[in-house]
Amino acid sequence: MLAHYGPQLVNLFAAVLLLLAFAMLAQRRMLSLINLFAAQGFVLFLTTSLVAALTGQHHLYWSALLTLGLKVILLPWILHRLIRKLNIKWDVETLFNIPTTMLVGIVLVVLAFNLALPISQLAGTVTRSTLGIALASVLLSFLMMITRSKAIPQVIGFLAMENGLFFAATGAVYGMPMVVELGVALDVLVGALILGIFIFQIRERFDSLDTRNLERLKEH
Amino acid sequence: MLEMLALLASPLAGALVLALYGHRERAAEVNALFSAVTFAAAAVLTARIVAHGPMHVLHEQFFIDPLNVFLVALTAFVGMTTALFSRPYMRIERDHGRVSAAGLRLYHSMYQMFSFTMLLVLTTNNLGIMWVAMEAATLTTVLLVALYRTPASLEAAWKYFILCGVGIAQALFGTILVYFAAERVLGPGVGSLLWTHLDAVKGSLEPTVMSIAFVFLLVGYGTKVGLVPLHNWLPDAHAEGPTPVSAVLSGLLLNVALYALIRCKVITDGSLHQAGVLPFASSLMMGFGLLSVVVGAFFLSRQRDIKRMFAYSSIEHMGLIAFAFGMGGPVASFAGLLHMTMHSLTKSAIFFAVGHATQKTGTQLMENIRGLMRVSPTVGWGLMLGTVAILGMPPFGVFASEFLILTQAIALRPWAAPILLGALGIAFAAIFGKVQPMVFGDTTAKRLPHPPALLPVFAHLGIVLLFGLYMPPYLADWYRQAARLIG
């Protein structure tokens, strides 16, 4: 049963992950953005556990638990606290031309699929078709970081990029060795904490979280 | 084995101790002491490698060969001299009220942590851990760049974090692809990420995957090296952070990132060579290197901030080194390694002198710094000699390495030689024209309560001079061995 539907289910989750990446690209509300990020983490958790069950790779269960703890519970909780303390919970960001951003996003997806094609053909994993999607979601998060001007959406873009990378690792090679995954997770956590401190300092200095204020250092 | 552990344990212990006591009066001395212990361990380790050849430590998790041990020694040495320099420098900054007690504690602790992460990148055999340590090096320095909490420093740190974060994420994707290629040959598990294992089977790694992986690795680690067009964070981070941090960023971090890139290039080259494909990795590195040299040189003349100017000079020199490794071959790789050493020593010496000069004049704007020679001949001479050295004048060592790179370029890639020469000429005119009035003429500088630490400046310049005049045969041998590993 699982062996039959499993691979298709993995593909379905991968598609949901990509959809969520697009949703984040277009989401203007701070609160919804964090929830979308948590949802993406949850889908990643489901995919990783499913791949673990399908392939019997036990260390993937640990990787899945790590994702659940860090990206579904801890980081969204920190972000929620942050926006509550900064009193920007209901902030709505004005975004530059959503349809254009979406079109650029579609081009990126096509690009990612083309780039991943020769690699996925070599892969022997049940999840090989997901590598293109993983690369696409990395690039979409990248696009999100470029198009946003507020600090917190940029941070979420950074974290979502890490989601895409974990997904790539699960899809292509059934996860990196545990010691590496732990190290990466630690870096992400510390990075998020430092960015949190930074956001307070930026707000203190500039009275705003608009990173367009941070454009004074230019060539003279 | 034991010295290897001491090498990593000393900065880590230093970070913990200074996280607790880093604000005390004697913290600067403790910081220097830990750095000295690290250097002693590095020296013992170097002696061991020179005598007995490459070695594995802890079930192959760490791997030391002539290539990385020379960078370990350099990193530990500059780490120690910078700690000595930062002792009076940070005291003066504290007296000027630019940094608080809590800030000093953060500074000292993160300084040691930064040394630890760099040494981990250099010694680990695991490409995944290398990535983790590289990212950790970014994280530790981000807080140091923002130490003064001024709007400009916050901006620089934010830019540094976001750009390097994005860049290094690409390197992780590249690492995943390398693991993917290796797993097909070596099977799953930690073994497939160990560089020595990869090196042994590099001929049978899938060339398509490896070339795509190398593009991602180059973009990722290249961002940290400061290769154009991924260099935007570098001048800001160098200009806005405390000067000791600029010195270690420029002198050490760029080298370490380049080292990570070289390790990846060796494997990629091996894989592509076997498949008979064009030397794709080398061409990419040469292209990025040349672009960095040219853009770096042209931006030099537009700078008004002294630290920004020398940051652009670092971009230029890193480009030159990347170009040398891209050309490949025993002589070019030898020259690249020598230039890494010379640039690291000279540039950190310049930043030490610049640090004292900016404290004496209270500004980083070059038009307001005048006549350093009048107030402090040693700082003036330090800056002047450092500048002459970095511009590649004989008899300094930078001349030797640049000369080797140029002659190799004429021999192997004749089209690139005029471009390189032109860029070096422009850089000379730009830097010398700006430094000369800062050193000579009427003065704007004042005296300071703490005497400057000039020993590191002249120690570095002395070594650079020595390398230019006479290179001991065993050192030349050592560089030759390391160059052979790069190919």
- Helix fraction bin of chain B: over 70%
The secondary structure category of chain B is mainly alpha
**Helix/strand-derived class of chain A?**
mainly alpha
Order of helices and strands of chain A: HHHHHHH
Question: Largest interface, by Cβ-Cβ below 8 angstroms: which chains and how many residues each?
Answer: A-B, 46 and 51 residues
Could you characterize the architecture of this molecule?
The complex is a heterodimer of chains A (220) and B (487). Helix content of chain A is 79%, strand content 0%. Chain A is built from seven helices and no strands. In chain A, helix 3 packs parallel to helix 7 (178-206). By secondary structure, chain B is mainly alpha-helical. Chain B contains 19 helices and two strands. Chain B has helices at 2-21, 27-52, 66-95, 101-123, 127-145, 151-186, 195-200, 207-225, 233-240, 243-275, 280-300, 306-327, 330-361, 372-375, 377-390, 397-412, 416-439, 455-469, 473-486; strands spanning 55-57, 62-64. A two-stranded antiparallel ribbon of chain B has the order 1-2. In chain B, helix 5 (127-145) packs antiparallel against helix 6 (151-186). Chains A and B meet through helix 4, helix 5, helix 6 and helix 7 of A and helix 5, helix 6, helix 8 and helix 9 of B.
Secondary structure elements and their pairing?
The complex is a heterodimer of chains A (220) and B (487).
Chain A: H1 2-26, H2 30-55, H3 59-85, H4 98-122, H5 130-147, H6 151-173, H7 178-206
Helix pairs in contact in A: 1-2, 1-5, 2-3, 2-6, 3-7, 4-5, 5-6, 6-7
Chain B: H1 2-21, H2 27-52, E1 55-57, E2 62-64, H3 66-95, H4 101-123, H5 127-145, H6 151-186, H7 195-200, H8 207-225, H9 233-240, H10 243-275, H11 280-300, H12 306-327, H13 330-361, H14 372-375, H15 377-390, H16 397-412, H17 416-439, H18 455-469, H19 473-486
Antiparallel strand pairs in B: 1-2
Helix pairs in contact in B: 1-2, 1-4, 2-3, 2-4, 3-4, 3-10, 3-13, 3-19, 4-5, 4-10, 5-6, 5-10, 6-8, 6-9, 8-10, 8-11, 9-10, 9-12, 10-12, 10-13, 11-12, 11-17, 12-13, 12-16, 13-15, 13-16, 13-18, 13-19, 15-17, 15-18, 16-17, 16-18
